[in-house]
């Protein structure tokens, strides 16, 4: 037995050994192969170097020849183009002077409106006299409809003509029109009287417009609720939505009507504040927040037994009422809980002590308004008047006004709250329904304005922040991705009547809009040169305009676009963490806020091409104040080539007199040409009814006129407005009267720009079709030399772009192409990315062409993809004095470019053809070698795989990309985006199908009828009329049951709503709400409501924010009761009597503002040089696989380009990490989030502050209970009309 066991063990051991040997023998070929690949495969470094050199030489000479680079450069030199030093300080002074003059005209215009309005209000009229005015909602602009046919609808005929100056909107320059909101009773005596006397403003409106043809909409917003605007235009109504536009809610009105304020809101959250009371109280607070702006400071405290901050981050402080902070308040309001008993003493003491500390603490830091102070007490009743607290903290100086809001119908609770308000220069209101919340909240504004009104003569004008207007046509000049940016100037209008009882009535606010486009016209970009730019900042440090102000996300307006800080758009080169406080940047920002003259140098990071490319450069900044405004104008110019500018002009007068020169238009005789679409070369000042001519047509017209006798340039853009003390004769000399013909022909021409254009046209007049470009190529083998060049082009400093197509290539492609010609799309000369990159790269390599392809090339038709190659032309006097004059370039068919790339890299350089006997393992044709052409930012220009085109190299070969960074081939540069939008994905629930039956049809019909009724009831809140205590507190909005599918749904107009909307619409959404593809693609069916902003005179146009997002109202957060036949997601079962609300938006996501960061890459060309020559960089990824193999690679700079050739061994199956350049969100923990919210940059308070008048105590009006007036009748009429219209449409 022992022997058997021993034998068995011996046998078992032999079997194991045999198995191991067999496995090793089986694996030997594989291991041997790996070893061979690792050690026997030699990277063809020498071949890579030769390929890169040959490719570079070939495409350089070919591009030079086709673009006629040397011819154009010689023409600039022989044309005696010289260099002039750019004096940035003098330049910004001149520009600021022009902008200041323009702004003064606007201020003078609103002052004239104000003066006439105050005088007109003193006139006495008979109440029975009819009022003649044009109702903006009752205009008939069509002459084809007879008057009799529209008499029954109270319409009036009025001729309206499309006007370029007003974005093509049909207007009438002879009269103004009046808009009366639905919630205002148009026949109320005070409304009728104000409409009557304000009719006198028409003459003033017209006079202002004749004096200043750049004036936009002029308007007067009455305290009674109507808006008179000039010129008259039709108010486009939405049949499905009541007209709730009210000028008194717009920022220009509220800012002008009262001085800045520090405010503490005390919200009673005791146990009695439940149900409808709680909802009304929240609405009161929300509406108070809507009346605040960036010059106000606020905090909200909940109080019951204890008094605590609504937002814990805002502990014991007042915060600026900017968009982000208001959003935090609104987010927190949905979390409040009611409990215990209210301790009013603690709450009032907390508020008074905070306001007192604020006065001393913020006295020097710029925080706090240091003007009006107010406590807003929102409660359902107080047990005492707390006279002792008021006498201790507020008497006898009454620095703090107290406004009290009694929630509910209890009459016995009015006395104490009314006493608090009346004893502290405040106002008391009782709010019983949701419908009256807005009107009752607005009552505090005239009280704040009392000291200002009582002084009478002190009319301080205000300037709003930037806002967007979509009244114009998308793509029109001056539009920022479809939205026109504007600011407004406004001034209060006081009642000068003397009455027996002391009063201080605000009649309204007069204002006008100022498009940012009109400001930018006075800061011409050609004077700043390529990569130079201008910007404007207000006293809060917020950007009015800046090239990196990006107000749009996926064609939708961002809600925080109008509060972007200057420190968020200028990224210093030293910024390595989010929101780092760079001292140089903050010092420059402080100078801008303080309106100091500034001159500073900073190293910055500039991102291009939708934040996919980056440039590092030093820039010099210059700034000056714009007198009479809170704005500072600044310019930035690149250090180096930005110090100088090319001076080359053709004196038009001499050219005309020189008979040898011929017609000046001969300079435009060759090739195709276009001008910068946004620049002003020449324009008619009164161009309103001229044809909408292109810049090319206009320059042709004016150059033809210039060759006639008595030509004058009229190059003065602005001049100071007339002095108010001028007599009639002096004023006539300042502004001579013009006949209609003179007015029509009155024009402006930029002499320097036009004469520079003529010089550039002569220098680039080389693209003659009679000259064969191939003849200029030394190598006559054109069949192999022309590798797909379709177009040669040149763009110049004066905005001229001209080109010629290569017949042998363009005839076969462009004729059948669905895409517009490349040069007709990219016609912005120095503002094109390819122009900017070529100029910046000139410092790296003066002979280099800069290549690029579209990032989405892989998704396009391969036959339509073009490679763009551009090279800068500099005028140089020595190594230090140089300036860019033009950029030449070619476009190349990408497929032929790749064929050329393959043809060169698939053959050994030492053999003449690919069919030679060289080893295929040494070429890119081998499966063991992957070859790429990368640009200076790491994007693939060409590879063997067509689908790689335009992609970032790191997404395919991340590990190799990281090795290139470690080898210092590329440099990693971190960029922060402080204007980012983050999208939080929602999960999608399934929806069960519904069988259609007769019963179901009847159910749908009943649902449709009730949906209409409930929609209007909730929209107008008439349901509160019959039993407000039983009415459902509808805090989140309503669905329109008749909404047809649409692609664009909108928010309400104006900066006020933008402040609130972004911070609120997401937070008020239940977590269970689900977004579907149908809801994101089909909105509520609402069209934009024409509410007069900018377009209708108020200056705040309705802006579409996110597709599928429904209209936001102050007290209707979101719209949403779906009917059964509407494509909406399933809703949770636990929704109570009314369904929870959903929010439909892009790709089933919640958009919110956030910070993002991304690492971009830049080629380090100098690192690739050795002894003045480009040498290959040899690298290897060692042990990148479990079997121990590695991946060698070779990198070689392609001479005279911005490209590198990368060859990578593909035999080793290494796992490659993905390196992406998509921005990712910067994560903030609770502490850093609070610190960021509390961090307040330096700001300058508004100069105007009127918060005291010694006689104000004589005014005894301090409020009473709220009630619904005649507007309820109007709303009831609207309800019936809406139901009738809905039935008729069905």
Automatic annotation (TrEMBL):
InterPro entries cross-referenced by the UniProt entry: Ca_channel_alpha-2/delta (IPR051173), VDCC_a2/dsu (IPR013680), VWA_N (IPR013608), VWF_A (IPR002035), vWFA_dom_sf (IPR036465)
CDD domains: vWA_VGCC_like
GO cellular component: voltage-gated calcium channel complex
Region Disordered, annotated ranges: 712-741, 1076-1100
One GO MF term: metal ion binding
VWFA domain segment(s): 262-445
Bias (Basic and acidic residues) ranges: 1084-1098
Record membrane topology: Single-pass type I membrane protein
Protein's cellular compartments: Membrane
PROSITE patterns: VWFA
Keywords, alphabetical: Calcium, Calcium channel, Calcium transport, Disulfide bond, Glycoprotein, Ion channel, Ion transport, Membrane, Metal-binding, Signal, Transmembrane, Transmembrane helix, Transport, Voltage-gated channel
Name of this chain's protein: VWFA domain-containing protein
Top-level taxonomy: Eukaryota, Metazoa, Ecdysozoa, Arthropoda, Crustacea
